[in-house]
Amino acid sequence: MRMSAVKTVPVLQLSEANREALRRHFLALDAEDLRLRFEHVISEVTLMKYVDAIDFGRDAVFGVFDDALELAGVAHLGLRDEVAEFGVSVVPGHRGEGIGTALYRRAYEYSRNHRIDTLFVHCLKENAAMMHIARKAGMEIVLDAAEVEAHLRVPPGDPVSYTEEFLDDRVGLFDLALKSQFLAARTFTEAMANAAETLAHPLQKEEGGEAKKDKKAA
């Protein structure tokens, strides 16, 4: 794999507890984003059926959370015996941040450590983001008129890759916990500021009324 292994974006493996966050993530993508992700026009009903059908016990799903605890990027690694298909999506506001690359690197790492020997991508030729990831990863790319297939042989895991996956899981959990604390603190601070502003308004009105009474008395 030629892709840089620099870890700058924490990635978390998702579970059933994140299904609702997955729904929000895919609903944040526009029609063209969804067409590129799923290779055809897809309705909201079909999209929700896809999310509901994700089998976390069979497949591996990875995500990158933003500061609002929404999924900025999602990778679905569909597993079939010793072959895995990689699909990825990143919401518009977080593109260009290395999220797609980080998700691919985590999926590759998972594949090594779970006896996957072939990782492949199937996408539309105009999906520039996926093509970039495939080329950067050193995949063997086969083009036809409208679609692309890219394959990569995955070496078996070793002590280093197992350790890296363990550490990446812990970093992902720590990142989510830290962002949760920051969001809670920010929400509390904003609530206190709003409460203080609300309390200040009646006092200002009362002071204004007292001033008018004093003027009349004078």
SSE diagram, text form:
Blueprint: E1 12-13, H1 19-27, H2 31-38, H3 44-53, E2 60-65, E3 71-80, E4 83-90, H4 99-113, E5 118-124, H5 128-136, E6 140-143, E7 147-153, H6 159-217
Parallel strand pairs: 4-5
Antiparallel strand pairs: 1-2, 2-3, 3-4, 5-7, 6-7
Strand content: 15-25%
Note the overall shape. Answer: globular
What are the low-pLDDT stretches, counting only 5+ consecutive residues below 50?
none
Strand/helix succession? EHHHEEEHEHEEH
Give me the count of strands. 7
Share of helical residues = 40-55%
Structural class: alpha+beta
Which CATH-level-2 architecture?
Answer: 3-Layer(aba) Sandwich
Intertermini distance: 87 Å
CATH third-tier fold name: Aminopeptidase
Q: Count the domains.
A: 1
The strand line-up of the biggest sheet is: 1-2-3-4-5-7-6
**At the fourth CATH level, what is the homologous superfamily?**
Gcn5-related N-acetyltransferase (GNAT)
Largest sheet: 7 strands, mixed
- Count helical runs: 6
> What does the radius of gyration come to?
24 Å
Highest CATH level, the class: Alpha Beta
What do the pLDDT scores average to? 89
